[in-house]
Amino acid sequence: MSKRVYFFGNGKADGKADMKNLLGGKGANLAEMSSLGIPVPAGFTISTEACNEYYALGGKFPDGLEREVVDCMAMVEQAMGKKYGDPENPLLISVRSGARASMPGMMETVLNVGLTSKTIPGVIKRTGGNERFVWDAYRRLMMMYSDVVMEKAAGLEPADGMGVRQQLDRLLHEEKARRGHTSDTELTAAELKNLCEVFRKRIKEVLGKDFPDDAKEQLWGGIGAVFQSWNGRRAVAYRKIENIPDNWGTAVNVQSMVFGNLGDTSATGVAFTRNPATGENIFFGEWLINAQGEDVVAGIRTPNPVNKKSKTAEQEAEGVKSLEEAMPAAYQQLHGIQSKLESHFRDMQDIEFTIEDGKLYLLQTRTGKRTGTAALNMAMDMLDEKLIDEREAILRVKPSQLDELLHPIIDPGAEKNLKPVAKGLPAGPGGACGQVVFTAAEAVEARKRGKKVILVREETNPEDIEGMRAAEGILTARGGMTSHAALVARGWGKCCIVGAGALHVEGKLLEVGGKQFKEGDWMSLNGTRGYVYEGQVPLMNASENPRFQKFMKMADSFRTMGVRTNADTADDSRKAREFGAEGIGLFRTEHMFYGKGSQEPLFFLRKMILSQTLEERQKALQELFPFVKRDVKATMEVMDGLPVTFRLLDPPLHEFVPQSPDKQADLAKALGISVDDIKKRGEDLHESNPMMGHRGVRLGITYPEVSEMQIRAILEGAAELIQAGKKAIPEIMIPVTCEVNELRTQKVLVDKVLAEVKQKTGVKEIPLKYGTMIEIPRACLLGDKMAESAEFFSFGTNDLTQMTYGFSRDDIGGFLPDYLDKKILDADPFQTIDQAGVGQLMKMAVEKGRATRKDLKVGICGEQGGDPASVEFCFKTGLTYVSCSPFRVPIARLAAAQAAVQAKA
Amino acid sequence: MSKRVYFFGNGKADGKADMKNLLGGKGANLAEMSSLGIPVPAGFTISTEACNEYYALGGKFPDGLEREVVDCMAMVEQAMGKKYGDPENPLLISVRSGARASMPGMMETVLNVGLTSKTIPGVIKRTGGNERFVWDAYRRLMMMYSDVVMEKAAGLEPADGMGVRQQLDRLLHEEKARRGHTSDTELTAAELKNLCEVFRKRIKEVLGKDFPDDAKEQLWGGIGAVFQSWNGRRAVAYRKIENIPDNWGTAVNVQSMVFGNLGDTSATGVAFTRNPATGENIFFGEWLINAQGEDVVAGIRTPNPVNKKSKTAEQEAEGVKSLEEAMPAAYQQLHGIQSKLESHFRDMQDIEFTIEDGKLYLLQTRTGKRTGTAALNMAMDMLDEKLIDEREAILRVKPSQLDELLHPIIDPGAEKNLKPVAKGLPAGPGGACGQVVFTAAEAVEARKRGKKVILVREETNPEDIEGMRAAEGILTARGGMTSHAALVARGWGKCCIVGAGALHVEGKLLEVGGKQFKEGDWMSLNGTRGYVYEGQVPLMNASENPRFQKFMKMADSFRTMGVRTNADTADDSRKAREFGAEGIGLFRTEHMFYGKGSQEPLFFLRKMILSQTLEERQKALQELFPFVKRDVKATMEVMDGLPVTFRLLDPPLHEFVPQSPDKQADLAKALGISVDDIKKRGEDLHESNPMMGHRGVRLGITYPEVSEMQIRAILEGAAELIQAGKKAIPEIMIPVTCEVNELRTQKVLVDKVLAEVKQKTGVKEIPLKYGTMIEIPRACLLGDKMAESAEFFSFGTNDLTQMTYGFSRDDIGGFLPDYLDKKILDADPFQTIDQAGVGQLMKMAVEKGRATRKDLKVGICGEQGGDPASVEFCFKTGLTYVSCSPFRVPIARLAAAQAAVQAKA
After folding, report:
1. Do B741 and A824 count as a contact with CB atoms less than 8 A apart?
2. Which residue, A730, A748, A736, is CA-closest to A699?
């Protein structure tokens, strides 16, 4: 077995930054910092491989681990000049998780480990007789350890939520109340010591075991609990959302404790080398005097800014003191370190520090999470600063983060006339508008019902994670910019305001500034400024930022794969063109059939469907024709010079026949036929499995006149635009094909109509392409045949996924959640292309198709066309273009650019 | 361009028997006969390639064809000592179609070509002044030529069915009526000559063109018409039924006319070297004195038997004269020739002959169609005669013909007490029982509505082909054993009685022996004896024939692929075992859930489905358990020593919830819950596309307790049988899988239950196999993964075809007929495996699966498992076994044996 435990400290380290897979992010970076000569409390990291071994052994430590831990502990003791478990000069340690990917707050930590009846006197002595500090540290250890190690890791957590932690919390509150204290800090040493005795008894009562009074037992209990927490409920839920594999495991960091709560010369804080919300190149952070790190992260006290520059006007007015002002020497040292770290890692760092009695320690550094706006700004700034090159800059913004840049902000015009009902910290930028809910569960429920909600909480905790995901925006009364809510929301690019102290949340009522919000009341948030508004404030888009445009242009210069859009109207097409679409990959003709009146397209379509004879049908088609031509022409006009792929009628006809008796009666009257005729036709058209029924090209085969009408509309529209000096480039796409003869049959119609249109209009050349959706497995299997007729393929990955899995998308609600929960599938294949199955068919289709027709154009127009992982797959598979909804065009452009950059790396 | 025209005659020939693809069956065999020294009227064959050229040129003769025809005609003239178009000694010719595969009556023929005002006097002279004969020949030419060449080939056929042929027919009838004649033969030379004038005028009136009086024009008109008739409506319909490719084309045989109607020294006939209905080794045939061949085939006159042996008792009693008796010399020559032909071709021959003024000519020989019974008997006889070897014998029976051997006959016990209402010729053996219909269209309609019908016709013609197909049995008043109805019915192995002269059919009423049958009345046929019965006579099976058993045993000795059956009950299993099934490939557990009472399986299943909680569901499952165990155990007991593959619950649950309000109310009462609960649960379970919904393993994932109950029933049943000394070999098959994790999840249950059952029963070893249906494309694509868990695969080709094509089998009615009509698909992929698409996936699955698990067993249990072409494909793809319905087991056994024989050839 290879090495399992890695020492760091004293300017040395066994590990380094690129060993994140083995040591976790935190451990690898602690090692790197130590090697760089940055002061870190000495410690050691137990590898992620050891965690996997632990699970493989059914929850037992592997042989040999103890020996390595003992050896490393000796090195730590030497570096810190203290000895773990020693009565005279005892070393205290923290035991923390540290996975490859950051999972903030999702796993467990135990601090102050090593405090026992044997070591407490020694610590008191070494802290200059600070008894209050020591008993406070001990009660914290008892609260954490009994919860994390003795209860959760042992699987004893009760279903009613009243676990040992909650009970000890209650005892603490009762003690404060009895003594008339309002905050923890008012508790005296004697009171705390007494409280520890009360805790000890309660722990024994609740868990049936004594609180361990042995340093070694505490150490191993902590290590085991961190391993266990990798498979805790929260961690598993988070991994599912973030797509983090279960077999990565967590490392364990055992590190000397340093205390930010040793009095007013001590402090603790969290900082970012640049502003994570805006990207501004200003050292940015928060600190608390006389506090432990958990106080900052948990959002229990509202922290202060680290420096003058990042103070808000209000903070300035309130006389809030920055670290720069309060402890200038430590701040200068910290500033130097942060600068060194950013240069070293060539990216924005998120750091944790503690000042123990005036001495600065760095506890952590990692690449900081950031909003999309910040990611963009930092990438462009660092490029300007020559810290990174263009390729790296392109890779610095996650395609999914662009969403945020494209997503709404509060309309500034509307906002300037409004007075916020409350102000808080701008934790997640952008705007949000929704109905108030007060619990995560309600947020999830409301979202399922299609509602937009704002989740309002006193403070959030990791249990709220799914509700936060479901909400449009998050608002909390407490917490700082680095609190749980802020970190999570920023990671998702979600609008979030934290620490809005004026809020009073009681049950399902929010009171603020004399106003009341009940569940369901509307509220709007400006997450960029931290302002809360009553009611529905209009939102608007933020995509016209010139820096965004420049970034995208740079990305496009590396991109080799085309990006088109799925659009069915001139308006959508215009918008997509603004977003950079290089053509329309999917124009769904059925979306043209709308309207309620008896002179609108839907009416004529229905008339066509309800025709009894070919003659009646042809008459209805003639009436429908001008509408279709008008719409297809308008779109080609907008896309002037870019190709427009028209998919012929796709859905089964019964979808257009009204179902309700009222509507059937109206239609019967308008058409002058009987309701029974309509019902009967509806029944005739009814199918057991319409997804695999009479639709797509199958309609074109049985009703060639319907295809012909559409083809004529497209070609006449194109010819007229060409006559008017425009560049119309129509592409006719046949849906739901499984056999080349389907394509050949429809091609006869295309050729016939093309000749007629040329004849009629005198236009000599219409640059038409003829192709097919590839959305049926057989079409992939026979791609060589299909390409004999088709000049292009466009993957309809929605249907292709349905057929390949045998999953009806409308019906997966009954089992897909179980499939994801039980890990039968890693991901929803309708969100991201299933590369192993559907992807295999796609590869076959591309290879076979190009074997027949070397210059075959191949695109994708399913919804996965805008999913970054799917875009990357499409690039690797050699697709000519991806096509997605207008809003996702920039995302696809960036994903395609990144795929190209990485392919050349 | 290669040679297009092939001469034969005078003991010589350009072609030979193995050139059927080029010369058609008739042409190739005429050449072969000529080379063998058998007297055939000289002629030449225009190749099928020329036919394809003709179509490729848009209906024009290729350059150079005329030259070759002229050259060959000269050789014919020399052979026959006559000259085409010559006034003195004119040669008359026939122009006939001749495709690779026999298509009886589906294409056109023109006889007596070359009769013109210039040649008629010469023919009269050469026939010794037989004016009547010549004018009769001329009126026949006019009737055929005006219909076939001038009207049909020109596309002038009127929709009302009153074409030129019908009009001339009517004129002929009117002429007879006017003269007081009852048959054509009573018409005098003068009357016929006059009729020809009447015909000439009517043809001009109807078609606007003169009847051609030029021999050359007649010749080329005839050739073109035969080419055209390849794409005639009837021919196309027949090819569709018989799966004959469109691009085979037809050859044209131009042959000297010889006349069987030159008086009482002339005759014509059709014969088989053995009896085509029973297989008996007796020269068997029919002849007509003073007649042309069309008179025999068309069934207008009832012909006589060729020899004494094949006379029926009635014919004997009626004093019917055989050819053997009437023309002993010609008969002896014919007998020698037929014997030579059978030895030469080593198979039963179907021959046409004409005796012109005492001189015998063979007009055609071909391998004769035969019933399944005859095929079996001939194969076994010829094997005994050492004419063929075992391999050839096995190939001599079409697997689909076995159907007929397995299909019902009239129960002899019931029959002996019945008196037939009529007797006819036993044209197609076996029994049939159905409701009378009088038109082909009604037969097709009734069949669609699920009715069994007997098609009763005065005589059938090629237009009736689809109705004949749809009927259980066919009964005609006219025609002989070689009439159209007889040939077609025998080809299909369909029960058929022809020439039942006592029948009087008028409109929709059949009168016979004083009884009347109206549409819908029941009738039964014994096609083996030619007896017609009133009402429904019981039918029984005919599979216990020892010769059949011997043949199948011989086939099995060559067969390498296993054959199992799909059976869900002990009774079906027993039957399948009798039919030779080597195990059960598919036991559908859902078929166990039946019964109306509140203590029957279906009730408990519904109770389970309607359970609100896991506890309720488990209780219902416990109640269901004993029924399931009883049924699976009974089947394993029957299959003692053979494997039984149990597929776990497959259909979506909603299929089991009653839909009608009455039934819902009953169920609610029985379960003690509200109707609303049932309705609500039904709605919850409703799916848009249930075929791709919550079914198969997806149920097992969400309700593992349902899988567990079934697994326990199977394993406990097996263990108890083993305890009782039986050999139970259960195989558990998981349906609708698309991902190996599904299999792994269910395997955990299997392992758990297996351990529990062993513990409970003390049985140490249960020989269990665990595997999966492969019916979702993704499972094929990931066959390597699936085989990590599965020990066997079984292709569910029904669903696999649905998903591969995106065709819902329940909904294809809307478009599949169009797809077949328009030749977009060659065949219904649910009937025979689509080798290009579905087959490709199957190959992938087999190759990938065996790459992971070398000894992976692979079977098929979709309905195509009993389709001979699919069985052959499965053999080639390396499947371990096919599984099909009990009735198709012998068919699959034979198909598999034939595949093995052919693979070694």
Report:
1. yes
2. A736
Contact criterion met (CB below 8 Å) for B610 and B671:
yes
| Gap between the Cα atoms of B279 and B352, Å rounded | 19
How large is the ipTM? 0.77
Task: Give B204-239 as a DSSP string.
Answer: HHHHSSPPP--HHHHHHHHHHHHHHHTTSHHHHHHH
Residue A412 has pLDDT above 80, yes or no: no
Helices (H) and strands (E) in chain B, counts: 36, 34
Per the DSSP assignment, residues forming a β-bridge with B860 are B795, B882
Gap from B646 CA to chain A (nearest CA, Å):
22
> Which of A778, A822, A834 to probe the B interface (max B CBs under 10 A)?
A778
d(CA A497, CA A484): 12
Determine how many CB atoms are found less than 10 A away from the CB of residue A18: 10
CA distances (Å), A540 to each of A4, A355, A406, A521, in order? 53, 44, 9, 21
| Contact by Cβ (8 Å): A774, A845 | yes
Question: What is the Cα–Cα distance from B739 to B786, expressed in whole angstroms?
Answer: 7
Rounded-to-integer distance, Cα B897 and Cα B556, Å: 6
Mutate to test the interface with B, among A649, A685, A694, A841 (most CBs of B within 10 A): A694
**Angle, CA A791 vertex, CA A786 and CA A793 arms, to 5°:** 65
Q: In the 3-class helix/strand/coil scheme, how is B796-844 assigned residue by residue?
A: CHHHHHHHHHCCCCCCHHHCHHHHHHCCCCCCCCCCCCCCCCHHHHHHH
Would residue A504 show up in a list of annotated catalytic residues for this protein?
no
User: Which residues, listed in sequence order, are joined to residue B883 by a DSSP beta bridge?
Assistant: B564
Q: What distance in Å separates the CA atoms of residue A39 and residue A786, rounded to the nearest whole number?
A: 66
Exactly one of A196, A495, A738, A861 is catalytic; name it.
A861
Catalytic one among B72, B861, B874, B884? B861
A605 contacts A593 by C-beta, under 8 angstroms: yes
- Alpha-carbon distance A837 to B805, whole Å? 16
Smallest CA–CA distance from A785 into chain B, residue: B836
Residue A95 parent element (H or E): strand A93-99
B484: annotated active-site residue? yes
pLDDT tens digits, A442-456: 999 998 888 999 999
- To which H or E segment does residue B354 belong? strand B349-356
Average pLDDT of chain A is 91
Mean pLDDT across A770-787: 98
Report yes or no: B25 and B102 within 8 Å, Cβ to Cβ.
yes
Please indicate whether residue B860 or residue A682 has the higher confidence score (pLDDT): B860
Q: Which two tokens stand for residue A580?
A: 């950079």
Structure tokens at B264: 């009482």
Residue by residue, what is the 3-state secondary structure of A786-832?
HHHHCCEEEECHHHHHHHHHCCCCCCHHHCHHHHHHCCCCCCCCCCC
Q: In Å, how far is A813's CA from the nearest CA of chain B?
A: 9
Show the 3-state SS of A255-321: EECCCCCCCCCCEEEEEECCCCCCCCCCCEEEEEECCCHHHHHCCCCCCEECCCCCCCHHHHHHCCC
Using alpha carbons, select from B436, B333, B343, B340 the residue that is nearest to residue B382. B343
Residue of A nearest to B700 (CA): A815
Of B687, B741, B836, the CB nearest to A823: B741
Pairwise CB contact (< 8 Å): B692 & A802: yes
